[in-house]
Amino acid sequence: MHRSVPDSRRAGLRRTAALVPAVVLLAALVSCTSPPDPLDTPCGVVVDGSGSGSSEDGFDAEAKLKSSMLPFLDEQGCGSVEFAPITRSSKSSPCRVADVDLDPPGNETTDRDRARAKARSLAAKRALEELECARTQDGSDVWGALDRIGAAVSGDGGGDGSSAKLLVVSDFDQADKDFNLYKADLSTEQKRSSVIDTLVEQRGLPGLKDMHVYPVGLGMQYHGRPSESEDFEAFWAEILEGRAQAHVDYDYR
To answer: Is the pTM of this model over 0.85?
Structure first.
């Protein structure tokens, strides 16, 4: 026997059916407005202001910086970024720009993705300002720049740098008033080790322990000279990984 649904029950079913889309929509809105995971990786960017960084045939520091920095900041989850120049005396160079908070605070109405993108754009602008200043000075003290950026991202050397990520946009040609890498013999492991011993004795090691270093442009001045390039890269690998105990990655090379 067919039984009709009472009007009161039918009305209740209609109200329940009407509520379902509203509940689904509310859940979607809550999901969309949930704050993203915080960005807490300390990062650093080193820019090479030496003459070799403006070479059209070799290493173009500005072009490399523009192509690598924003992907680096985004992909490495950088929450802040410090800057350091490569000049004739990098540690004491007056070229300084303010660090950037890449995960600026907001409230429930803040578009966090847009705020982060704006902060990364500001960081790219400041990196170019640092490069412009560095180019007004002579020399190429890569060693000092590495020490300066390592101290900056770890809180003047006192913090744990194990999560820090460093983008170093340079051909790594160490050439200052006291030392010129072009004049050094890097042809064997023993000779490279001797040069490194001398530099460590004179300057100490850059504070990069457990940090991740991403070189961009390393050895580009040796284009077409593979044997010299291999010796040069082995020299810096021993410094960064062997002595300073950093992790070297070539994702943005």
So the answer is: no
